[in-house]
Structure formats: structure tokens, C-alpha cells
Amino acid sequence: MEIKQRLEHMDIFRGIALLIMVTIQIFDYLSVSSIYTTPPYYVGIINSVTWVPPSLLFTFVSGMSVFLLVKKKLYTNNKSRRWTFLEIFKRYGKYVLISLPFTIIMWNFGTYFGWEEAIQGIGLTAIFTALFLMVFLKYNPKINSKRSYTFLIFIILVFGLLQSMIPRLIDNSLFGSIFPRQPQDLGLLSLVGGLILNAFFRGWFSIANLFPIMLSGVILINLINEDKISDRKLIFISTIPLLFSIILHLFGYNINYYERSFALTPFAIGQSALICSVTYALYKNSTKRYLLRIWNILKIFGITDFFVYIFHYLVILKVLEITSLKDLLSDSYSWVITIPLVILVYFSAKYYIKIKGKLPSFLRL
Prior knowledge:
This protein is mainly α.
């Protein structure tokens, strides 16, 4: 597969996740209501921050990006697996490092240590996913086959079970006390061990939780780019994991976002796949001017995803916190102010694209 230019639909998928995230978080900082605990923003039936947690969709699309990057490096550029892994490690590893000062500024070191921040989790899981794909592609060069899809679905289900079970098993075992979730005065070995367990299993943004979602993104991008199946079939396939999660929920195996139930994994996959599939169908058949404008707006958010993430947190949310303007307004007033602030983020991102090439390399997010 040759990838000579950016895939616009990928930027649009990513842009949807960023737009949702920026909007609900700015609103959350302004309003006396909390998207994490106050209905209707908090959805009690699935114990979730809104019906569409943006972290799930962004993780799903990140899996697509990782696959396309691995494929490009290995096959289009004919690079070795070692060179490809080092390039991907440098690309995504920097996010894990950048997350440390960012998380301390926005929250505290405990959030980073607990692996509860999106940048660090998605960055590390992207590296893990790339490593898995390089090994997988060595023995299965063609992903878009029934055999490959079946194996990937099996891995997704296994990790879905693991992510729902292992954190509790660790916490209830001797390992949980020796290697705590939060830093305590127990020595360097306990700190390192606790951090590793959080990064791989216990943190919400751990590899165990995010990897099956990323791997599902790999499947969908192959269905789109390689199999080129019809829009209706793509949408139908996307609904299968979502329906599976709903059936599990009805039989008492609840979808639980915060507690990371097994049903969360197919719910996250189905919801993200359905959003991407419907969006892709609309994008391919776009002829109306208003739709083209919407795609252009979403592409700006998608292209500048990391800039938008950092900018809205540090320039808007942190400023609201420092100036004691956080959690003061009613919902209606909060929405009135949220809209122009989201527009500010959009135009800032647009300007950043314009000047990015002139900036020093360390400022090119």
C-alpha cells in the first residue's frame, strides 16, 4: 500500500474526537455541573463521561495511524523492522516524556504515575501496537484475510478479558501492596514496579485497556483501504461489536467505562467503528457545500491534534483554574462561553498550521 499523502478521512475521524473532547472539557471547567458526575453529561447506565467518551474514538483512530505508519515504513520505504521500530519509538515515545511535565502542570505527579493521562497512555500503546504489528506482518503479510481477521479478533477478545480482570487481581494480591498504584515511601524498586504495573495493566490508559481498541482500528482501516467493501456492509460490520456489548449489558455484564468492564471493550470498538464508518460514507458522497465546510473544520482539528490537546488544556483550562473562574457558571451560560472558546481553539490551530514550518523543531507539536 502506497501512502503518498495524508488520508483526509483519517484527519476527519481524529478531528471528531478532538472537537468533542475540547467542547466538553471547556464546558466542564466553566460550569458548576461536572461531565464526570452530573447527568445528563454523566451517563449512569454505563458509568461514563457522556455517551461518546472522546478518548475511545481517538485511541481507535490512533490504531489506524500506527498501522499505516508501520506499513509505509516496512513496505513503501523498504526499511528494516529494527529501523521501523526505532522510528516509531522516537515518534510516539516523545509523547510519553512530554506527558510528564504536562501532567504535573495540569494535575499532579500522581496522575502520571497512575497512568491516567491520555498522551502517555496512547503514546506507549502505539509503540506496543507497532511492535505487535511488525511481528504479525512478518508471518502474515496480508492482514485483509479471514485468517488474519480471525486471529486479530481473538487477540482483541483476550485483551478485553485481561483488561477487565488483571487490575483487580493485582490489587487484591501481594503485588498490589508491594507495588502500589500511587507513589509511596517504599523504595525505588516499589516505585518502578508500581509504575510498570500501571502502564501495562492498572492505569485507565494502560496498554491492556487501549491495545484492543487500537487493534480494532487496524481492522477497520483495512476494511476501508484494502477490502474496499460497500458503505452499507462497513456500517453493518461496525454495529456487530456494539450490539454484542449491549447484549452483554442486558444479561448483567454491564458496560462500565470507569470500572473497565469486559463489555466496555466491544462497546468502545463498536461505537468508534460506527462513527468512523458513517462519517466515511458521508465523506465519500459529499457534494453539498455545508458538508465540505464541516470536513474542512474537522480536518484542522485532526491535523493539529497534539497542538489542540496541549493548547486547550494549558491556554484555556489552566488559565480558568489559575484565575479562579473554574466551576462558576450555570450550564446555559457555560455553553454560551464554550462555543467562542472552541472557535478560538480552531483559529489558533489554523494559524499554527500556517506558521509551523517557521518554528524551531522542538515547538512543532
